[in-house]
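Hi Prof. W.,

I finally got the Pyridine nucleotide-disulfide oxidoreductase domain-containing protein 2 prediction working! I wasn't sure whether to trim anything, so I left the full sequence exactly as given:
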Amino acid sequence: MTTEVVDAVVVGAGPNGLVAANVLADAGWDVLVLEATPEPGGAVRTSELVRPGFHSDLCSAFYPLGVASPVLTDLDLELHGLRWRHAPAVLAHVLPDDRAAVLHRDPETTAASLAAFAPADGPAWLAEFERWRRIRTDLLSALLRPFPPVRAGTRLLRKLGTADALRMARLLTLPARTLGEESFEGEGARALLAGNALHTDLGPDHAGSGVFGWLLCMLGQDVGFPVPEGGAGRLTQALVRRFTSLGGRIVCDTPVSQVIVAGGRALGVRTADGGLVRARRGVLADVPAPILYRQLVGADHLPARLLEDLKRFHWDNATVKVDWALSGPVPWTAPEVRGAGTVHLGGDLDALVKYGSDLSRSRVPGKPFVLLGQMGVADPTRSPAGTETVWAYTHVPRGGRWDPARRERYADRVQAVIERHAPGFGDLVLGRHVAGPPDLEAHNPSLVDGAINAGTAAIHQELIFRPTPGLARADTPVDRLYLAGASAHPGGAVHGAPGANAARAALARAGLAGGAYAAAIRLGHRAVYGAG
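And this is what came out:
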């Protein structure tokens, strides 16, 4: 690359980087996005991974927070080719005896499924959904807009009142198992909460896991677990089309090797091929916080206390993912599972607790919890008529050696879990692809050692503790450098909030009150890090 000058350079063309680029381009900025890999999208990409004609999502696949996100809604991506598709049922959690608790977009139908486990759980579930319906807009805004959420938080407090606000705050801290036992009598509702909590790296006994399970259950009934028609990559394509239609540029196969800092300010970036890009107004980094601070910025430009805090940064667990091309639909024993886009396998609540406990002790679970997607059920365009594209993932401890032979053995274990509830599954397999932690990191360098959340979702690394104790904002101690990836508040999932928050911070810094904004941020950082 030759040296050039732009208003802003975005490092990384993952979903957050592309959202940040779009928000800045909407404001009329000249924005350049630099992506290290051959194509944009990060963890939101699709490929004929297993067999021609079978379209597999390389990482993320279902997007409840994406379709509910006010950030993505503001971008009107449907005008740029995005089309959402839904499975007949949202999610099924299969218990060891093949009974299934099924989440539907119709709350009454979900309640009926859960009442089969305990009659009182039907009305109790509907009461939870009514609570969600009353606060959902303000809660999502408070979660996904820049911190602190003054306006949304005020509206939320007004709607809840002091008494219910205190109880809601308590809910935010509860383990999923505790929340389920306090709220419901039967196995079905409790399994739905715990299984959805395991979409994070938190086990059912971990503090704060309950709210993740509750949030995904409520979103599932509200907006479903939709998928982009044609593959997750269509979401990326819509973001790219929108951005380039505004004059933005994306350059792939161009790793950034350094953020150039002088006088406490980010001036631009240096690429691995020796190119220089000067950024007049800001550098936005859609990369994990440890990579940004340790590799791209360097210790000389950062407060000592931030560097010390980074030593305590906790990654989420590693991941093993398996994709299959099948000659027919999955032959589930339980017929109600056949229409679910997402399926949870791996046992009852006690088994899920043991799985979470094994991970906490850095043990590879003997019986994995399997999160499975039936993509053809949600979107028949993913494979030839009469066939099916299926994926599943499970978590394993970080740091192990996952050579090809070990990955295949563990994939056999995952497939055996499916076979127990769908006898004959193996006979339908036309092909299989296994990705362990090193494979995931190879196709997306931000998935460090197979961590798909850019840092744990545990309560000690959320809000003002994400990625380290600080302001919970995209602003870094380096002026005009912004953390735009999932390491920043509000964290992982494809909702675009970290990218949008970084873009809004950059716009505020460059605005008429930019000097006052910068002074306020410096004051906050001085209080936290002792930075000047």
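The chain has 18 helices and 18 strands. Does that look reasonable to you?

Thanks,
D.
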